[in-house]
């Protein structure tokens, strides 16, 4: 289920980024307390960039106009430096002294949208020991704005005392399992309508990796879309057919950010929604982001010609408002795609297996050696590849293992909390 702008003619914030009546209802208590809604565009340790309506501040900036940016180091134009404090002209907007995160700020200012700006906010007050409950790119937040007529604004409206007081409930969340021995999940993006799975056609797609990505995307609650990038590169047309077969019920788009092929179809599909872009380094995520944004908002690096693997150009998750409406969350390349519990995503990714399983003689068929198993019969006659059945079983086992680790962690945390409460209520207890 997607949550697109319910009123496409309203290009004001927050509606342009997907705000709707449900969010407004959830935010009502915070609005009564004097807080304002904001959408988190980037998260750092203890601080984050938040998009808010510009009229919450005294130094209003209308990004439909070519206005100046006032910073501690001088006054600068929206696209280039104008003057410094001494009145000297010239400079490079991408290297403005005193302007934090100028790439994101300039991209926001280039959009033809109404009264929107980026502020720097402290989220340490809501920090949780559970990383999945901490702010993530795409979250909607209740923001306490600290600027007033007495305190002059700092660089481009950034101030360390603007704070995140609460996060609104997430409608969707892309969560992967943490690497190593930890049982925590890692939220890659929140409140997205689409999960774009970038797969390069410059090399043969990895079937197992795509199946993992599809399970991850389906589990998020958003709509997966496979985007086959670098269509301009020499490739076997059969690869596209193989990907389509691996993604039942999923739109598969073949695009080239270089030639523009397929881009109109992708823009039309996204509409005014929010999309998260996932994939390995080197699949062309940053190039695709730049094409959708209409400008070079992300750095681009070349791939190694030996194996078509890329370098990590994108190092943080960042929400980019798009000129066509909606937003795109670009993410760093994923080296590993660990699942984080729940069988719904795996079942959706392997719906062809489930459709066969519906004809098995036994409802609890394990699809191994049971008589009357429609799944193994399909494998025997070549209707279902053995590799795909093996992949399905592997992901189910992984999900079960992750769930058991998570349950053990939750139980241990509850036990620790119980002991702390017991000690605090009985000071005499050692």
Largest sheet: 6 strands, mixed
User: What is the helix content?
Assistant: 25-40%
Average per-residue pLDDT, rounded, comes to 78
Write out the strand line-up for the largest beta sheet, numbering strands in chain order.
13-12-11-14-16-15
Summarize the structure.
Helices cover 28% and strands 20% of the residues. By secondary structure, it is α/β, with parallel strands linked by helices.
List keywords for this structure.
single chain, 430 residues, alpha/beta, Rossmann fold, Ribonucleotide Reductase Protein R1, domain 1, 3 domains, six-stranded mixed beta sheet, five-stranded antiparallel beta sheet, 10 helices, 16 strands, globular, Small ribosomal subunit biogenesis GTPase RsgA, GTP binding, rRNA-binding
Commentary on this structure:
- The chain has helices at 21-32, 102-110, 207-220, 238-246, 263-270, 285-293, 344-349, 351-357, 374-380, 386-425, and strands at 36-43, 47-53, 68-70, 74-77, 81-84, 116-122, 140-144, 163-167, 173-177, 185-190, 194-200, 223-229, 251-254, 274-278, 318-321, 327-330.
- It is α/β, with parallel strands linked by helices and 430 residues long.
- It folds into 3 domains: 15-167, no CATH class; 188-330, Rossmann fold, CATH 3.40.50; 349-419, Orthogonal Bundle (Ribonucleotide Reductase Protein R1, domain 1).
- Strands 13-12-11-14-16-15 form a 6-stranded mixed β-sheet, sandwiched between helices.
- The relative contact order is 0.11.
- Residues 56-103, 105-114, 148-160 and 301-312 have low confidence and may be disordered.
- It is found in: Cytoplasm.
- It is an enzyme of class 3 (hydrolase).
């Amino acid at each position: 289920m997607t949550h697109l702008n319910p009123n496409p003619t309203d290009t004001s914030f927050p509606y342009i980024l997907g705000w709707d009546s449900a969010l407004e209802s959830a935010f009502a208590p915070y609005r009564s307390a004097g807080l304002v809604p904001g959408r988190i565009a980037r998260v750092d340790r203890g601080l984050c960039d938040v998009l808010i309506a510009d009229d919450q501040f005294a130094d209003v900036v209308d990004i439909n106009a070519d206005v100046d940016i006032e910073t501690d180091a001088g006054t600068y134009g929206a696209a280039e430096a104008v003057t410094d404090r001494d009145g000297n002209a010239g400079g490079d907007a991408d290297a403005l002294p005193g302007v934090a995160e100028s790439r994101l700020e300039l991209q926001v200012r280039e959009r033809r949208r109404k009264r929107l700006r980026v502020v720097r906010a402290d989220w340490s007050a809501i920090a949780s020991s559970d990383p999945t409950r901490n702010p993530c790119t795409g979250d909607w937040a209740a923001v306490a704005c600290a600027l007033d007529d007495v305190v002059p604004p700092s660089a481009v409206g950034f101030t360390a005392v603007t704070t995140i007081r609460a996060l609104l409930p997430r409608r969707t969340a892309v969560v992967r399992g943490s690497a190593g021995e930890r049982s925590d999940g890692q939220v890659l993006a929140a409140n997205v309508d689409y999960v774009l799975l970038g797969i390069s056609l410059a090399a043969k797609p990895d079937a197992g990796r795509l199946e993992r990505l599809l399970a991850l995307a389906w589990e998020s609650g958003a709509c997966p879309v496979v985007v086959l990038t670098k269509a301009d590169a020499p490739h076997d047309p059969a690869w596209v057919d193989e990907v389509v077969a691996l993604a039942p019920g999923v739109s598969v788009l073949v695009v080239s950010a270089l030639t523009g092929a397929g881009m109109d179809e992708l823009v039309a599909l996204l509409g005014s929604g929010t999309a998260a872009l996932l994939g390995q380094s080197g699949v062309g995520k940053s190039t695709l982001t730049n094409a959708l944004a209409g400008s070079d908002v992300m750095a681009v690096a070349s791939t190694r010609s030996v194996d078509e693997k890329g370098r990590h150009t994108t190092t943080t998750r960042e929400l980019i408002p798009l000129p066509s409406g909606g937003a795109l969350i670009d993410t760093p390349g994923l080296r590993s795609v660990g699942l984080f519990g729940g069988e719904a995503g795996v079942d959706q990714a392997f719906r062809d297996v489930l459709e066969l399983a519906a004809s098995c003689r036994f409802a609890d068929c394990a699809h191994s050696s049971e008589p009357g198993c429609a799944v193994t019969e399909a494998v025997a006659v070549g209707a279902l590849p053995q590799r795909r059945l093996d992949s399905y079983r592997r992901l189910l086992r992984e999900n079960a293992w992750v769930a058991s680790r998570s349950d053990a962690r939750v139980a241990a945390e509850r036990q620790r909390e119980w002991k702390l409460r017991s000690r605090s209520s009985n000071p005499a207890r050692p």
